[in-house]
Amino acid sequence: MSTPLADRIRPRTLDDIAGQKHLFGEGAALRGIIESGHIPNLIFYGPPGTGKTTVARIIAASTNKRLHILNGTSASLSDVRDVIKEINTVAAPNGLLLYLDEIQYFNKKQQQSLLQYIENGDITLIASTTENPYFYIYSAVLSRSTVFEFKSVPVDEAKKGIFRAFMLLEDEYKEEFDLEDGLLDCIANVCGGDMRKALNITELCVLGSRVPKNGEKRAVTVETAKEVCGRSSMHFDRDGDEYYDMLSCFQKSMRGSDADAAVYYLARILEAGDLVSACRRLMVCASEDVGLAYPMIIPIVKSACDIAMQVGLPEARIPLADAVILVATSPKSNSAYNAINDAVRDIKAGLAGPVPRHLQNKHFDGADNDTPGQFYKYPHDFPDRWVRQQYLPDVVKDKIYYTPGENKTEQAAKQYWDKIKK
């Protein structure tokens, strides 16, 4: 049983695949394409352990084409050329099906070497990637392929696969298992939608359980599952989509004023050991999403992040939890964020004329100036410390970049200045 359980229990039909009902349910487009037998070039995009390789094998078996499997992390250009050499030979009378796993690791030249053959149909390409294909796959390959997204396996579907795995292991071990209540839920939840990980944990749970005495069932407990799982579900690839998805969820939960979700994503990020990103997103959210609705939140959050960086993990979670909940439950305003974005947009559009003469740092106008003088009006010399004068360059003198938010802090300031400026 040296072969991994995920390979021993690999589905043989589309109906056996866990999850992916949007792809393989009755009436789904990809199912119809596969059952038609006319397979186009396909790109499967989604998290690991969601069935991409399994589906490629099912397609290869159903099309009667010669299957080649290459992995982008290890295959070279010469490996691709070896595949190409088999075109129109007795070894591949019905054509070639190339399954290219982790295509995002193929460089542009390697991907380009396939173009001619996937264009004319000599090679049917099925590529898989855990990264966004529109960022990582050469556009000419994308234009000749159809992208289908695989999604994380739902907990209920994962539990069915885990139960099947325990039944298979009972047959292999010639034993009966006593599965503790909650065991399937524990494994299904901790695997994070990755069926391969779920099956690996399942097998390790059996291996890590006490060998039964004569006549006893092998007890497989939740505690064993927790020991086996450890922190495996808490880590994410910092160069991958999952990393940015987690940070995005963290910031959007704070912006959406959901303190429970914000603390949850903070915990996941910190358990993965990424203290720096948690602090960075927290400070950005305080400035961008709370902003002028509660201006003092910015130094408060900065202080909490400084404390977190000084004490380090695991204690850093405490000041950060304070700050995250404060940001999530504070009133929101993105008025300053919008103002600076609009100003930057105008600058980039070329609206950057000379600043008004009375604001310049000059004290000599030249002998040829008929009306020398800067004519700057010092606001503190006027009632209410304000006087009307032009501050913007002429090209944007009538622009309004800042619109006060609908919160009491900004509205109070607006009322004050409306009164002063009449």
Write a structural description.
With 422 residues, the protein is an alpha/beta fold. Helices cover 49% and strands 8% of the residues. The strands form 2 sheets. The protein has a 5-stranded parallel β-sheet with strand order 2-3-4-1-5, sandwiched between helices. It has a two-stranded parallel sheet with strand order 6-7. Helix 10 (155-173) runs parallel beside helix 12 (195-207) and helix 14 runs parallel beside helix 16. The longest helix is centred in the middle third of the chain and has 19 residues, at 155-173. The radius of gyration is 31 Å and the shape is flat.
Task: List its salient traits.
single chain, about 425 residues, alpha/beta, 5-stranded parallel β-sheet, two-stranded parallel ribbon, 7 strands, about 50% helix, flat
Summed up, the helix count is: 20
Count of strand segments: 7
Main pleated sheet: 5 strands, parallel
- Can you give the helix content as a percent range? 40-55%
Extract low-pLDDT stretches.
none
Element string (H = helix, E = strand): HHHEHEHEHHEHHEHEHHEHHHHHHHH
* Biggest sheet strand line-up: 2-3-4-1-5
Structural class: alpha/beta
Mean pLDDT: 86
